[in-house]
Design brief:
Elements (H helix, E strand, L loop, with lengths): L4 H40 L3 H24 L1 H23 L9 H11 L1 H16 L10 H115 L9 H31 L8 E3 L1 H19 L2 E5 L7 E3 L1 H18 L4 E8 L3 E8 L6 H4 L11 H7 L5 H11 L3 E6 L5 E8 L37 E5 L4 H9 L4 E5 L2 H11 L3 E5 L3 H8 L10 E5 L15 E4 L4 H9 L7 E5 L3 H12 L6 E5 L2 H8 L6 E5 L7 H9 L2 H4 L3 E5 L14 E4 L5 H15 L6
Parallel strand pairs: 2-4, 8-9, 8-10, 10-11, 12-16, 13-14, 13-15, 15-16
Antiparallel strand pairs: 1-3, 4-5, 5-7, 6-7, 11-17
């Protein structure tokens, strides 16, 4: 807070008064000297009385002025100035000497110094009046003396004024600066104090934040562990459910497809088996829905996008659900304009969305019908499925897209369903950067909407024809460039003989331009011209590829190379070197189709599974085929190896999860045995089909410029973040 100027002046005057009070102390010795001079003059005078009296008065002035100055500077100054002024007048009158009056400049000067400029001017005026209008005791004054003394007093006052005016202004400026500096110092001290408090508070907040970060880190680790436990639980539950379902569906489908294998089965039993198969298939679909939802929540659901004609997807979905509508005698209409452009989407997922919406509409509609309507704008295409069903209350619409939720329990009991379809459909749409919503009025039906973004069309150049006169002749002198359009997307060179790595990259690296070569030699020849951002090599074993990359000039400088070993069969087989990979529940048709797809005659088949019922199931499926197979059965992989030492087989049906030695370990042992290396294997697993199967058990990276120590550490840290997230502190 700034001090007002009047207070500054008062403080300055008080300080000046304290300095002026010291001038009285310096003046008193001068008064003592003057009294001593008067005493000497009085002694030599013929009439010493008046001189002694004046000297005594001067000596008395010293202690009196000293004492008064302790209590009042003003009165002490007035006493001192008045006494000296009076003494000069009295001495001049007593001695009849005009020259003594020149001493009047002393009281005028003291008054100006002690009491201020205006007080000195007042004493100067009084002295001047006294000189020019003298009383009787000064009647001896002559005009030259009067003028000379007046000029001396005015000159003294003027010089003092010229000295004091800038001095006082400078003092005021210095005082103002002092006050400003003092205020700034106080403010700085206040800010420093607040800064110290803020630093202390910040330290306390930092300590709390550190503790919160530690707690958050621990909670994140716990959440990560819970997520892994959840995924493991889902996978384990999937395995545990798929194994008995494999038995139920397998035996049921085999009995229905080839009842002659079991003898003559009564029609009622076949009808019951049909019910068992239908409900088992429904339970299998429910497991797939739960696994889909688990993968979506874990952000591990990949999309295989391609340019799709939406009309074809709608027609396929309508054709699939039309028997349901015909059985309930309700209509199913499609309103599809002819000008709908192609969309970039995963056709399988969008078809599942349409099937789910149409199936729900058909199940919940008893009278009237369902209408599928498609509209498009410049940015998106919108699909709606409207029904004339009972409608959905507003409070139920809010939770409709949550997992395991339906409009209400009574609807679920009446129409069936798990409450997962809409949740999964909405997630599929949102994976395409679209959105899904519902509009419904109880008693007036329900409409489900979902929208998908369209490809951004090329912006047409603004026409400039409005600037030309249509009646003026015009020669077309435009220059048509001969340069071809250049693809500016990052280029990735892929070296593989199959297509599995290409499919993975096209699915996950949609913004990349892939250049494919069958061999590394062909890729190296064109690598310099292509200037790729990275090189991907799919070759087994990967050691051979690394040896090729070590050759001079095999890898351009600055181009990283990633080497893996993926098989072009089912991507879940990966580097397992198996003929096929079937996920339980395995149907009879799927198993026989995999065997026929081998392209070679098969007579002897070894079934390896630790459950006798499963071995019996596969035996029944194989017996139902037109081809007669010789079926050998082993309870685990160890027994299978013992049997293979004495038996020659054409195919091995291998389960993944078994005691003592699992299917992967069996494959590793098979690679070391030349007599078994070429025997085809079909793996049978109950693991999550939508998870991330093991594609390769090794991954290698090469870099044309070599790896520095810093880059090795950076790559190691990146791998730790990918392979062991949440474990680094």
């Amino acid at each position: 807070m700034t001090t007002p100027p009047s207070e500054w002046m008062q403080d300055m005057q008080n300080t000046l008064r304290s300095l002026q009070r010291q001038t009285i102390t310096f003046t008193l010795p001068v008064c003592g000297a003057a009294g001593l001079a008067l005493l000497l003059v009085a002694i030599r005078s013929p009439q010493p009385f008046w001189g002694l009296l004046l000297a005594a008065g001067m000596f008395a002035l010293i202690p009196l002025a000293w004492q008064i100055s302790k209590t009042s500077y003003l009165w002490a100054a007035l006493l001192l100035v008045g006494t000296i002024w009076g003494y000069v007048i009295a001495i001049a009158a007593f001695l009849k000497l005009e020259a003594v009056l020149f001493l009047l400049i002393i009281p005028v000067g003291l008054c100006t110094l002690m009491l201020g400029i205006w007080a000195g001017l007042a004493l100067l005026a009084a002295s001047t009046i006294l000189l020019f209008f003298p009383p009787e005791f000064l009647a001896f004054l002559t005009p030259p003396t009067q003028v000379s003394v007046s000029i001396g007093m005015f000159a003294t006052w003027g010089m003092l004024w010229l000295t004091l005016y800038p001095l006082l202004n400078t003092l005021q400026w210095a005082w103002d600066s002092y006050r400003t500096s003092t205020a700034a110092l106080e403010q700085a001290r206040t800010f420093q104090s607040k800064l110290q408090e803020s630093i202390q508070d910040l330290g306390a907040v930092t300590a709390q934040l550190k503790r919160q970060n530690e707690i958050s880190h621990n909670l994140r680790l716990i959440a990560e562990e819970e997520r892994r436990a959840k995924q493991e639980f889902v996978a384990n539950v999937s395995h545990e459910l798929r194994t008995p379902l494999n038995m139920i569906i397998g035996f049921s489908s085999t009995m229905l497809a080839s009842p002659g294998v079991y003898g003559k089965l009564p029609p009622k039993l076949l009808a019951d088996l049909q019910v068992i198969l239908r409900n088992s298939t429904h339970l299998s679909e429910l497991i797939d829905d739960v696994l889909d939802l688990s993968q979506i929540n874990a952000d591990r659901m990949a999309l295989a996008k391609e340019q799709v004609n939406l009309r074809e997807l709608v027609d396929v979905a309508v054709t699939a659900v039309r028997p349901l509508f015909e059985s309930k005698k309700i209509s199913l209409e499609v309103d599809f304009p002819i000008d709908i452009p192609l969309i970039l989407c995963d056709p399988t997922r969008i078809r599942e969305v349409l099937l789910n919406l149409l199936s729900n509409a058909g199940r919940f509609t008893e009278q009237g019908g369902v209408t599928v309507r498609v509209t498009a704008t410049q940015a998106e295409v919108e699909v709606s499925v409207s029904d004339t069903g009972p409608g959905i209350p507003l409070e139920s619409q809010k939770k409709l897209f949550e997992p395991f939720q339906q409009a209400d329990g009574s609807i679920r009991r009446k129409y069936g369903g798990t409450g997962l379809g809409l949740s999964i459909s909405k997630a599929f749409v949102e994976l395409h950067n679209g959105k899904m919503w519902v509009e419904s009025t109880p008693g007036h039906g329900t409409t489900f909407y979902f929208s998908l973004p369209l490809l951004t069309p090329a912006v047409e150049p603004v026409s400039l024809m409005r600037w030309f006169n249509p009646y003026q002749s015009y020669d077309d002198t435009r220059h048509v460039t001969k340069f071809p359009e250049v693809d500016t997307r990052p280029r990735l060179v892929v070296v593989e003989r199959g297509t599995v790595l290409q499919k993975l990259l096209r699915r996950h690296a949609t913004d990349a331009n892939l250049v494919v070569f069958e061999t590394l030699d062909l890729a190296v020849k064109d690598m310099v011209e292509i200037s790729p951002q990275a090189l991907f090599i799919n070759q087994s074993p990967i050691e051979n590829a690394l040896e090729q990359l070590k050759e001079p000039g095999a890898l351009p400088e600055g181009v990283p190379a990633l080497v893996c070993a993926l098989q072009d069969k089912d991507p879940r087989a990966g580097e397992l070197r198996v003929a096929d990979y079937l996920v339980k529940p395995v149907s009879r048709d799927a198993l026989l189709a995999a065997i026929h797809a081998l392209g070679k005659p098969v007579q002897t088949i070894l079934v390896v599974d630790d459950e006798p019922e499963v071995r019996q199931l596969y035996r029944r499926m194989l017996d139902s085929d037109e081809t007669e197979y010789r079926v050998l059965r082993a309870g685990d992989c160890v027994q299978a190896l013992e049997m293979l030492a004495n038996e020659k087989v054409d195919l091995i049906l291998l389960d993944v999860s078994m005691p003592r030695m699992d299917g992967f370990q069996f494959l590793s042992v098979r690679e070391t045995l030349p007599e078994l290396r070429d025997v085809p294997v079909i793996m049978l697993s109950a693991r999550d089909p939508q998870g991330e199967p093991v594609l390769s058990n090794a991954l290698a990276v090469a870099y044309g410029s070599g790896f520095s120590a810093r880059r090795v550490l950076e790559c190691a840290e990146a791998l730790m973040n990918v392979l062991a997230p949440g474990e680094k502190k």
